[in-house]
């Protein structure tokens, strides 16, 4: 798994590449928590366009960051969610609490 | 067609991906759709993750065995560990039950949702055996072969 972050306006955009499972959950959690602390006034946007697999370990990281940021009146949103991930995220109730938006990085690249 | 596979590996987080990719590759030998295979991968990932996290409590020297039986009607996957076991299987299968606040107790939810049958046997102090079956479906209905 690799992650690449960019700060765009009010958001930290984190592009994740790889599977989100037990192996990658802890490194991803640590990396996101560092970014959340480093940019204390920014919201988090996770770009999952290069993620083909998520299980409950990966969802735990997303929900954990959602809770952490909600406590600080900040938000998490998702972009680039592939069809293969939708069933799992839907079953976990992610879409009822976390918004899915267009990827701002790709949008800029296309312009 | 009948095919079998047995995988035996240590309780390392690295092996969660190994197990799901191997089982997915086997599942692709019969008429599962891509979505079926994606869902089987999630169920296998959950069962193996549970063995590592809850069976061996993160210790990396425990053995996990995955046995698969494939035939034209579907795939049976058994994931077994020889770890600490589960005191109360019914409680552990409840949707919100988890010892880890970030895991949300979703593991069994995914296994039950994505497979057509789930059996959990556990003896405290001896280990846990999870058996899951996924049947071939045609347009969401069970195929004639599977009925």
Whole-number count of domains of chain B: 1
Total E-strand runs of chain B: 7
First-residue to last-residue Cα separation of chain A:
28 Å
Briefly note the structural class of the backbone of chain A: alpha/beta
Question: What is the share of helical residues of chain A?
Answer: 40-55%
Question: Quick check: average pLDDT of chain B?
Answer: 91
Strand order of the largest sheet of chain B: 1-2-3-5-4
- CATH level-1 class of chain B: Alpha Beta
The major beta sheet of chain B can be summarized as: 5 strands, antiparallel
Element-by-element helix/strand order of chain A: EEHEHEHEH
Query: In terms of structural class, how would the helical and strand content of chain B be classed?
Result: alpha+beta
Greatest interface (CB-CB under 8 A), with counts per chain: A-B, 19 and 26 residues
Element-level helix/strand string of chain B:
EHHEEHHEEEE
Unreliable stretches of chain B = none
- What is Rg of chain A? 13 Å
Integer-rounded radius of gyration of chain B: 15 Å
